[in-house]
């Protein structure tokens, strides 16, 4: 059996040598049925001059068969994982209650039924007088606002229920376990007698007031009858979505130890009063009616519709109807229950349900909606009339014989599938523009045009309720986005990949890994400019109306900058019965998923100047306030516009946050201090201290990645201009530096050579950008490795002289390797070039003949089998080992580095957040003392590339150039990298599908040479590196890899803690490195470091003036220019080389002043004594059996 990560060559080698599997016939496409379409005769080997076969592509019909077979396989695989016959770890059994252990619960429900049906009536009385009598028993009547007054002319009363029905998902056995240990809910629908109500009770909330009193009386009945119940229970009130009109009674039975089977149920019983035979005419509850009458309304005013109010009134009539309909669906559709469970689990994992963590607003209590989606895809929908003005097309039913996986995927297809529309990808269903009416036996109860005032329309099968009446459009946008991401995971995974874990088992509610922009908003001081008493009454409370206005304003203001916006807060919690109204959260989170093609534009255009008096212009000015102004643009147009002033790229990335702050301040009166975002905190981690930046500004330094790229292009022009004075022409100059692919941690700065004397020594580091020079091929090169290296020195000397004479102010010097163990056959020489502007480059020469000569030293008998080759020893063995090391350096430096650079640079252009994500991730690795010494910068870039490319969505033009799940900000990208590192099983390796693999497919591929290191933990496979050790051959080893996993888990826990933390400076703690687990820590003098200004917790006193005169010491700028000189890193490298067999060393290359050391694990065990062991040792005695054996144990000599 071939493993998932095995190469094609390994797969071929696994076949028996005597079989005919390796014949040429297997290379031909034979069709799904084993024969090619349209071929009636075999093609002879002589069909072509070479004797090869003509390989025909599969036809459309064959492709459809392949797709069907793949879907069938995945459907079966999902079913096996969801409902295995024997595994205790199956999904469905673990999210469903144990219905076979419900006897004690049934007894409890029967007792409740008996108590309710034997209740005594309460005669009609004034609502205030009735509430006082209940208040004496500690029960508050949850009257809705405005509450009854002394002038109220209606009365409340109580009679025993007309009927009690076990409703909801528990009755239909479709209950699903919620998140965060939320209990299963058992709904007990109690029908209120119609004699308690009058025809006019639908007006001004009177229906809800009478329902509230009825619920309070039921609570008092249960409280008085506690002693007759089979077990103790806790009584609480709870309101769905914080709406007092949807308050119900919660009973939490406490089963004793004798009822062990029921104690595992973890249930709570909800008492929900409802109307069966309502005396209220249903046409009075049409969505197009206004049932809240204002006392101040004059004859000239027009009443506003109350769609949400009317919908909740209708919901009071549906519990029994929904129960019967879901039961019928379950009976007629075999896979309905399993498909619904999969859909609910998928939704719960993404916050569309109950939970104590941040959940998406609008989906609390929407269990019936998820079932209605499946009802829609199976049975189809009612066609909306043309009079509605919506473009919804009738959906054809898919039938009842689909599997649970197919039904689940069909539901996702409805929610988020894309379709091509005039060369643009758009959602197949748009909730804003398309109404949905599930197929109903009774047709349309209300005219479809009456739903025009609703933001989104999805009418259930009873044709009574718009299930999305109170769901914000922004939440539906997020739902569509999540559905699209899931479909990508299902459709673009290979047959060997299993998306089951990602789709159903992974937690997706972590805001920093889910949203590009996260803002915590304090709503306690909000005052909406658009919320009046009528809207507050329609939404149930002023708080809900304010939040609804906030969501609509943000969605309108951000426009196409955002793919989705969500309001996030914990679901409603239960409260004591003495508390009438629910407690609303004072703070919530706003999560935004950006559309990077539009998110960072500097100008928002409005109506032209010719429409100054139009409604569009008034609405534009009302939205933006003082930010809106008339502007003339270069094309001559004069339009209303909003311009966002930014100074740099970091501020431009914060434009969506600036819009959120402005809109909240203008429309809700929320000051800037009440809106907290984390983008600025992360920006400071990638920014130099202000005191150093001011020195750069004073010296007129060139700043930015584009400036560095421009300097590189200028240098290339200067070098190529010298072709006439060189024996060989320059073919190409390739960049291989992170600075030249936008992924260096800090923004590059060029301080002119003449101004470098103003920099303090502790901030004098001059970064170097590596480049490779390739000359034209020539036979004049020597055929000896040592001579080639000397020839390179001569080239560098000549190039340095020519450049310095041709370019004014340029400095160039030839340098050799920094390590003491230099090899004569290895590429060690380089040319350091410092331009007059202050940019530093390090150039190396690539000569492809070196690879051939190194290969000859390693294998001087390639024509002989390995078993017949002579063994090398002595000097030959040493030279062969040196050649192996030199070949690894050559391959990495001259073959893989340019390819890697091109791939990463392409990603930086394709994804706007990729480069900044890499920079922030490198900062994290460096701050935890890992970057450079154990994890190379290229390895970090590949990890980030995997996070951006793992969806594997195919490229299809600009519309699909960005995968749905690709991060749109560095904060989200960094969080996803940390999340991946904490969960990554690095023993299985990682395949990074770099995008430019195709364009380099014809490039010469180096052979898969084994790494010289024997302890390599990470394997990062790319199209250029089949083994995956090119950038991990020097680390991390297994010890460091496990430490990275632990650090990632701790960082992820801190990120999750920031969701609720009130500290505004909590971001930096993610980068603070713990030192408790080191065996020793070496403290360095930070004043002697040249990169102290890059330290995480920088100390400005290191470069503050100490003497009386600031300019008392002036350094020679010619002496101070030392490209790439970092004594701390050099000291760390020397220690690592000398003590590599003794300790593992860790260091922060970005200004760190401490080196951590951990003893090698093998030093703690005894080993046999040997002469010249390379370490100090002492003899020890160890008893083996009955005799004493002399051993030695290594002893540190630090």
Q: Summarize this, please?
A:
The protein has about 1200 residues and is α+β, with helices and mostly antiparallel strands. Helices cover about 35% and strands about 15% of the residues. Strands 3-4-7-6-5 form a five-stranded mixed β-sheet, sandwiched between helices.
Tell me what the structure shows.
This protein has 1198 residues and is of the alpha+beta class. 34% of the residues lie in helices and 14% in strands. The chain contains 33 helices and 33 strands. Strands 3-4-7-6-5 form a five-stranded mixed sheet, with helices on both faces. It has a five-stranded antiparallel sheet with strand order 8-14-15-13-19. Strands 21-23-26-25-24 form a five-stranded mixed sheet, with helices on both faces. α13 (404-416) crosses α14 and α17 crosses α18 (542-558). The longest helix has 36 residues, at 875-910. It starts with 7 loop residues before the first helix and ends with a strand. Residues 1-52, 296-301, 420-424, 953-962, 996-1013, 1112-1119 and 1186-1198 have low confidence and may be disordered.
- Describe the global form: elongated
Radius of gyration: 36 Å
Distance from first to last alpha carbon: 50 Å
Tally of strands: 33
The whole-number mean of residue pLDDT values reads 84
Largest sheet: 5 strands, mixed
Q: Which runs of at least 5 residues are low in confidence (pLDDT < 50)?
A: 1-52, 296-301, 420-424, 953-962, 996-1013, 1112-1119, 1186-1198
Structural class: alpha+beta
Oligomerization state of this entry? single chain
Side-by-side strand order of the widest sheet: 3-4-7-6-5
């Amino acid at each position: 059996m071939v493993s998932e990560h095995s190469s094609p060559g390994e797969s071929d080698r696994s076949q028996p040598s005597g079989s005919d599997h390796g014949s040429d016939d297997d290379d031909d496409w034979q069709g799904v049925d084993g024969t090619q379409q349209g071929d009636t005769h075999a093609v002879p080997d002589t069909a072509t001059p070479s004797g090869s076969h003509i390989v025909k592509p599969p036809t459309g019909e064959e492709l459809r068969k392949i797709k069907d077979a793949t879907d069938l396989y995945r459907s079966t695989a999902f079913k096996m994982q969801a409902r295995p016959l024997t595994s205790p770890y199956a999904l469905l059994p673990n999210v469903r209650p144990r219905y076979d252990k419900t006897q004690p619960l049934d007894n409890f429900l029967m007792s409740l039924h008996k108590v309710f049906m034997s209740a005594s009536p309460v005669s009609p009385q004034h609502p205030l007088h009735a509430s006082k009598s209940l208040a004496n028993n500690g029960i508050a009547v949850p009257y809705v606002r405005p509450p009854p007054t002394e002038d109220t002319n209606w009365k409340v009363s109580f009679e025993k229920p007309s009927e009690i029905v076990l409703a909801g998902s528990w009755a239909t056995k479709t209950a699903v376990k919620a998140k965060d240990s939320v209990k299963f809910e058992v709904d007990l629908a109690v029908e209120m007698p119609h004699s308690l109500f009058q025809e006019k009770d639908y007006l001004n909330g009177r229906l809800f007031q009478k329902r509230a009193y009825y619920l309070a009386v039921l609570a008092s009945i249960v409280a008085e009858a506690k002693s007759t119940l089979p077990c103790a229970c806790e009584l609480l009130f709870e309101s769905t979505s914080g709406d007092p009109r949807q308050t119900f009674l919660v009973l939490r039975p406490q089963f004793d130890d004798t009822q062990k089977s029921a104690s595992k149920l973890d249930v709570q019983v909800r008492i929900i009063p409802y109307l069966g035979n309502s005396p209220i005419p249903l046409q009075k509850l049409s969505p197009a009616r206004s049932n809240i009458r204002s006392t101040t309304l004059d004859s000239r005013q027009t009443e506003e519709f109350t769609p949400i109010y009317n919908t909740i009134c209708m919901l009071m009539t549906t519990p029994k109807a929904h129960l019967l309909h879901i039961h019928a669906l379950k009976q007629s559709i075999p896979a309905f229950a399993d498909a619904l469970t999969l859909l609910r689990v998928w939704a719960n994992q993404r916050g569309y349900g109950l939970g104590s963590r941040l959940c998406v607003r609008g989906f609390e209590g929407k269990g019936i909606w998820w079932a209605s989606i499946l009802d829609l895809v199976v049975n189809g929908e009612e066609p909306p009339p043309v009079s509605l003005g919506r473009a919804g097309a009738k959906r054809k039913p898919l039938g009842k014989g689909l599997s649970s996986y197919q039904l689940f995927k069909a539901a996702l297809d409805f929610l988020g599938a894309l379709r091509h529309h005039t060369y643009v990808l758009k959602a197949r269903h748009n909730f804003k523009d398309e109404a949905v009416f599930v197929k109903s036996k009774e047709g349309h109860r209300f005219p479809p045009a009456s739903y025009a005032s609703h933001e989104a329309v999805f009418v259930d099968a009873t044709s009574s309720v718009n299930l999305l009446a109170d769901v914000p459009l922004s939440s539906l946008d997020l739902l569509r986005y999540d559905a699209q991401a899931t479909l990508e995971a299902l459709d673009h995974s290979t047959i060997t990949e299993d998306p089951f874990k990602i789709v159903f088992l992974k937690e997706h509610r972590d805001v920093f890994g889910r949203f590009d922009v996260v803002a915590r908003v304090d709503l306690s001081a909000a005052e909406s400019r658009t919320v009046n008493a009528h809207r507050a009454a329609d939404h149930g409370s002023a708080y809900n109306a304010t939040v609804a206005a906030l969501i609509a304003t943000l969605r309108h203001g951000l426009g196409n900058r955002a793919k989705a916006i969500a309001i996030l807060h914990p679901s409603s919690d239960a409260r004591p019965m003495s508390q009438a109204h629910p407690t609303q959260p004072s703070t919530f989170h706003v999560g935004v998923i950006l559309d990077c093609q539009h998110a960072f534009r500097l100008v928002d255009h409005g109506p032209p100047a010719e429409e100054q008096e139009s409604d569009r212009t008034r609405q534009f000015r009302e939205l933006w306030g003082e930010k809106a102004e008339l502007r003339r643009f270069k094309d001559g147009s004069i339009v209303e516009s909003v311009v966002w002033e930014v100074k740099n790229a970091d501020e431009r990335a914060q434009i969506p946050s600036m819009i959120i702050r402005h809109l909240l301040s203008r429309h809700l009166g929320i000051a800037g201090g009440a809106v907290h975002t984390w983008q600025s905190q992360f920006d400071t981690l990638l920014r130099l201290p202000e005191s150093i930046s001011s020195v750069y500004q004073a010296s007129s330094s060139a700043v930015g990645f584009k400036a560095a790229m421009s300097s590189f292009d200028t240098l290339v022009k200067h070098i190529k201009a010298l072709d006439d004075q060189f024996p060989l022409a320059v073919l190409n100059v390739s960049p291989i530096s992170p600075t030249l692919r936008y992924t260096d941690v800090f923004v590059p700065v060029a301080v002119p050579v003449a101004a470098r004397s103003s920099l303090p020594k502790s901030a004098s580091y001059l970064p170097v950008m590596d480049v490779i020079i390739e000359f034209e091929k020539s036979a004049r090169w020597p055929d000896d490795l040592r001579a080639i290296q000397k020839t390179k020195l001569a080239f560098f000397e000549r190039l340095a002289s020519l450049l310095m004479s041709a370019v004014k102010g340029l400095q160039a010097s030839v340098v050799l390797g920094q390590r003491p163990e230099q090899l004569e056959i290895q590429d060690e020489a380089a040319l350091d070039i410092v331009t007059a502007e202050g940019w530093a480059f390090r150039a190396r020469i690539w000569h492809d003949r070196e690879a051939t000569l190194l290969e000859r030293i390693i294998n001087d008998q390639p024509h002989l089998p390995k078993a017949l080759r002579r063994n090398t020893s002595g000097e030959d063995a040493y030279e062969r080992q040196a050649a192996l090391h030199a070949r690894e350096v050559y391959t990495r430096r001259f073959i893989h580095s340019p390819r890697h650079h091109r791939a990463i640079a392409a990603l930086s252009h394709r994804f706007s957040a990729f480069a900044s994500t890499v920079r922030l991730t490198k900062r994290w690795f460096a701050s935890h003392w890992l970057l450079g010494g154990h994890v190379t910068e290229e390895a970090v870039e590949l990890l980030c590339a995997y996070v951006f490319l793992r969806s594997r969505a195919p490229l299809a033009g600009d519309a699909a150039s960005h995968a749905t799940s690709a991060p749109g900000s560095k904060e989200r990208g960094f969080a996803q990298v940390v999340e991946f590192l904490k969960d990554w099983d690095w023993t299985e390796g990682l395949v990074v599908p770099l995008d430019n693999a195709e364009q380099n497919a014809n490039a010469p591929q180096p052979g898969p040479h084994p790494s010289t290191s024997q302890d390599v933990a990470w394997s990062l496979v790319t199209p250029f590196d089949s083994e995956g050790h090119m950038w991990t051959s020097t680390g991390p080893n297994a010890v460091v890899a496990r430490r990275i996993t632990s650090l990632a888990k701790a960082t992820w826990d801190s990120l999750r803690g920031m969701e609720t933390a009130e500290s505004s400076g909590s971001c930096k703690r993610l980068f603070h490195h713990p030192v408790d687990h080191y065996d020793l820590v070496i403290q360095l003098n930070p004043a002697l470091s040249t990169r102290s200004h890059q330290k995480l917790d920088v100390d400005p006193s290191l470069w503050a003036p100490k003497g009386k005169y600031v300019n008392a010491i002036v350094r020679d700028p010619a002496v101070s220019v030392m490209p790439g000189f970092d004594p701390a890193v050099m000291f760390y490298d020397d220690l690592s080389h000398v003590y590599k067999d003794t300790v593992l060393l860790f260091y922060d290359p970005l200004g760190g002043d401490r080196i951590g050391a951990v003893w090698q694990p093998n030093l703690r065990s005894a080993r046999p004594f040997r002469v010249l062991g390379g370490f100090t040792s002492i003899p020890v005695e160890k008893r083996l059996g009955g005799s004493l054996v002399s051993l030695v144990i290594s002893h540190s000599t630090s």
